[in-house]
UniProtKB/TrEMBL annotation:
Record's protein name: BZIP domain-containing protein
Chain intervals for the UniProt region annotation (Disordered): 25-44, 275-335
Compositional bias of kind Basic and acidic residues: 276-297, 305-327
Length: 335
């Protein structure tokens, strides 16, 4: 403690070095105590500054919350589209995988008096699975071409299958368009078929009198390119199915002359939406010499009766594919 006392004495003694240094230091100013009014004003200023900073922080926080909510909604929307789109595209892929080789005729749909083919139990189960799948994924009022209902799709599959010796479908790619709850799956497909005399009878009966053309056509392997659109309801059911098969391009690529293709498609039993007409109206009497030949050829065609017992409701009749030259020569890529 002595050194501390000695230090205090030296600090107050100007003769010592420490005291001389302390003497040079400025004397501390005495602060005037603030009045009550000044203290109140200072307090209010500090309070106002605090409030301003707090409001600024709150605005920044609100802006951040709004931005995060928008990002979350965008992510949710994208996730919904991706999930819904992938799920619906998977349905379309399952659909085409199940029907990749067409749909055999229903056992009750063969002509009376015609020898019925031997249908195995496995084939019967396959047909049942196909019909059940269509009924499950399609809306009861789904629009298919010019008809309404799942049976319209089943009927077209049977007609396409009955009209060809062999049929094999393949999906090349799919993509999804639209917004959640209003999605459309677009499928780009190929349909490889082998043309038989049934093909001529069902699709091109107007050339039966031209045996040379029939001979050139029967046995041909043809690969058609098709674009299918499946529109889905919010609950994931197909309510519209449209098909665009490029018959002209497929027949030309198969090696047929363009004149032959134009003759085939001029009055083919195929509508403008690529649907096969299940029935053909009786032709009016003709005086051409080949009429008897054509009638005999028609009689030789044992055309399978492929209509399902439960007929689909029909819309107004569509245009024929061959009604205009543009329909024959136009190659539709995709919309």
């Amino acid at each position: 403690m002595e050194w501390l006392l000695h230090f205090a004495r030296d600090a107050t003694d100007d003769a010592t070095p420490l005291g001389a240094f302390v003497a040079t230091l400025p004397a501390p100013t005495k602060r005037r105590p603030k009045s009550s009014s000044e203290r109140g004003k200072a307090f209010r200023a500090r309070q106002r500054q605090y409030e301003l900073e707090l409001e600024k922080s709150l605005r920044a926080l609100r802006d951040e919350i709004t931005s995060l909510e928008m990002q979350q909604r965008a992510r949710d929307s994208m996730r919904m589209v991706a999930f819904s789109g992938s799920a619906l595209a998977k349905i379309v892929l399952q659909y085409h995988d199940l029907f990749r080789n067409g749909l055999p005729g229903h056992p009750e749909c063969w002509l009376v008096g015609q020898k019925r083919p031997l249908v195995s139990a496995d084939m019967q189960r396959q047909v049942h699975r196909q019909e059940e799948f269509i009924s499950r994924v399609m809306h009861p009022d789904a629009v298919v071409g010019a008809a309404i209902g799942p049976d319209a799709s089943i009927q077209q599959w049977r007609l396409y299958s009955a009209a060809h010796h062999r049929i094999e479908g393949k999906v090349l790619r799919t993509h999804v368009s639209g917004s959640p709850g209003d999605l459309t799956v677009v499928a780009h497909c190929t349909l490889r078929v082998r043309i038989s005399r049934d093909t001529v009878c069902m699709l091109f009966p107007h050339i039966l009198h031209d045996e040379a053309l029939v001979h050139r056509l029967v046995g041909q392997e043809v690969e058609y390119h098709a674009v299918k659109h499946f529109h889905f309801t919010p609950d994931g059911r197909i309510d519209r199915e449209t098909v665009d098969v490029n018959f002209v391009e497929g027949l030309v690529r198969a090696g047929l002359a363009l004149n032959d293709v134009m003759q085939l498609m001029s009055t083919a039993a195929i509508t403008s939406d690529s649907m096969i007409e299940p029935k053909r109206e009786a032709s009016r009497p003709s005086s051409r010499p080949s009429e008897r030949t054509e009638l005999v050829a028609r009689a030789d065609c044992q055309m399978p009766h492929t209509e399902h017992p439960k007929q689909p409701k029909e819309l107004p009749p569509p245009k024929r594919v061959g009604s205009r030259l543009e329909d024959l020569l136009t190659v539709d890529d995709d919309s």
